[in-house]
Amino acid sequence: MTTEGQVGEGTGTDARAVADRARLVVRSAAPSQREFAVRIGMDPTALSKALNGSRRLTDRELAAIARAGKVSLRYLRTGQGKSPAAPATPAATDVRRRADALDAEARRAQILEETARLIARRGFHRVRVADIARACGTSTGTIHYHFPTKGDALRAALHHYADRLHRRLEAEFQDADGPVEKLRRLIEVQLVSADDDHDEWSVWVQSWNEAILDPDLREGQRDSYARWRRTVLDLVHACQDEGLAADADPEALTSRFTALADGLAIQVLAGNGDMSVPRMRELLLDAFEPHLSLR
């Protein structure tokens, strides 16, 4: 009787033959073994061990290999039946690899966006890999391929929203008339005005919380925050280059503003009735006083 844990009940030679045929199917169906593993939702390391003969394929895994490789289970088990097609020519394989790379890039972008959105709206500890896979219409194996751990998913979500923030700032700054106007626009971008703003701030706050508890997450959080702080500091320096806020300490002024923005956003996110978006805007406009007036 065949169990879920093992395929076949014959000798080690039979198991070796099954692994050899499975390896042939994998090589014929995908440019790489890892890609094939992702396709069937199987851990790449587990597949590698199975094809090398150091573990046996389960019935479910064998069936998945047969489907993806377009061969019969009978062929994989016994060698009887239609064998897999021969691998493509080198030129055709190269074209296929480039096409798969484009597909993989688009797939990763979709997974990243859904991961960031789910973490923002449900919370880091409430999001399961299965939830991300369901939202993306893919397997948990594919999600693990892109984000081996949940910490990797949170780091990716943070970078996703950090990049989004800086793209928005670049667009706002293109036609701004000087650094003072850029600071005004920077404040507008920082407000928790829309769902996307809420999502962005939610991931920022969650990344701080997790970095307190997990030192492995601190470097990515620190790098993203340093990039944001540098943007503010550069604008303060630009104002001083125009003769404004000449007596101010730019580092201290920047720290005051960024800390205030963070604290006010947390109050808005938490639904503090004393803090509204208009009130947040007013307080941030006054953050550089008396050295620099944004009104």
TrEMBL record:
Keyword Protein biosynthesis: no
Domain of life: Bacteria
SUPFAM superfamilies, per the entry: Homeodomain-like, lambda repressor-like DNA-binding domains, Tetracyclin repressor-like, C-terminal domain
Protein name, UniProt field: TetR family transcriptional regulator C-terminal domain-containing protein
SMART domains cross-referenced by the UniProt entry: HTH_XRE
Organism: Streptomyces solicathayae
Residue ranges of domain HTH tetR-type in the record: 105-165
Stored Pfam families: HTH_3, TetR_C_6, TetR_N
Lineage: Bacteria, Bacillati, Actinomycetota, Actinomycetes, Kitasatosporales
InterPro entries listed in its UniProt record: BetI_C, Cro/C1-type_HTH, Homeodomain-like_sf, HTH-type_TetR-like_transc_reg, HTH_TetR, Lambda_DNA-bd_dom_sf, Tet_transcr_reg_TetR-rel_C_sf
Alphabetized PROSITE patterns for the sequence: HTH_CROC1, HTH_TETR_2
DNA-binding region in chain numbering: 128-147
Domain HTH cro/C1-type: 32-76
The entry's keywords: DNA-binding, Repressor, Transcription, Transcription regulation
Keyword Hydrolase found: no
